[in-house]
Amino acid sequence: MIKHIVIAAAAALSLSACAPYMNLGSSELDNARKAVADAKAAGAEKCAPKLQAEAVASLYWAAHEVTERGVHPDENAELIATAIAKANAARAKAIKGCTPEIIKLEGVYFDNDSAKLRPASVATLDKAVATLNRRATIKVEVAAHTDSSGSDAYNLSLSERRAASVRDYLVAHGIDAARLTSKGYGETQPIASNATKEGRAKNRRVELRVMN
Predict the structure, then answer these.
(1) Does residue 110 share a domain with residue 86?
(2) Same structural domain for residues 21 and 113?
(3) What is the CATH classification number for the domain harbouring 150?
């Protein structure tokens, strides 16, 4: 994330000096502008920030070059093509779906058929608190999952209560509630087979999904 911010900031700084000499409204840039706008609408700024920043940088540089008609026509055509290609790649990545960073919480335990945290969970949850304090800019979703034992509706409800329980623990230990959401996924996202005891144990899990 920091690398993406640095890239975007560097692009913005390098282009700011040229801002008075840009012509973003030029018809030559119609396709590039549309590609960048379509990528943004698809969520590229969140899902593919590096590609989107590169697309915008190429578009802005092309907008500068069109003010110098006849000076660098080949370069300008290349910049426009780059902006379109980067934006299309960013859009495709966004449409495919963001894959959030997952912070695994190994060792979160609840009483049977309950959202009550067991004392054995404290060490893991305190590590999560330390991670969130260290990474103070991230917002996370507390995601809870169950195995396939029981009905779909019951498992969904149980997972929602367990996710909320972990969120409440984090808030109680100093994490800003505005940084946290909670969601239960029930049995819908298994990571192992529910046919075995070991697989079911793996599927009963809580994780933090970084949302920014």
Answers:
(1) no
(2) no
(3) 3.30.1330.60
Give the Cα separation of 76 and 62 in Å (integer). 5
Range of the domain at 73: 2-96
Pairing of strands 180-184, 140-145: parallel
Residues 82-97 have pLDDT tens digits of 999 999 999 998 888 7
* Residues 6+ positions from 113 with CB-CB distance below 8 Å: 158
Global pTM value: 0.60
SS3 (DSSP) at 160: helix
> Which stretches of 108-204 are DSSP H helices?
122-134, 152-172, 197-203
Do 135 and 91 fall within a single domain?
Answer: no
Task: Please give the single-letter amino acid code of residue 110.
Answer: F
The full 3-state SS of the chain, as one line of letters, equals: CHHHHHHHHHHHHHHHCCHHHCCCCCHHHHHHHHHHHHHHHCCHHHHCHHHHHHHHHHHHHHHHHCCCCCCCHHHHHHHHHHHHHHHHHHHHHHHHCCCCCEEECCCCCECCCCCCECHHHHHHHHHHHHHHHHCCCCCEEEEEECCCCCCHHHHHHHHHHHHHHHHHHHHHCCCCHHHEEEEECCCCCCCCCCCCHHHHHHHCEEEEEECC
Indicate if 83 and 108 belong to the same structural domain.
no
Overall domain count for the chain: 2
pLDDT exceeds cutoff 70 at 10: no
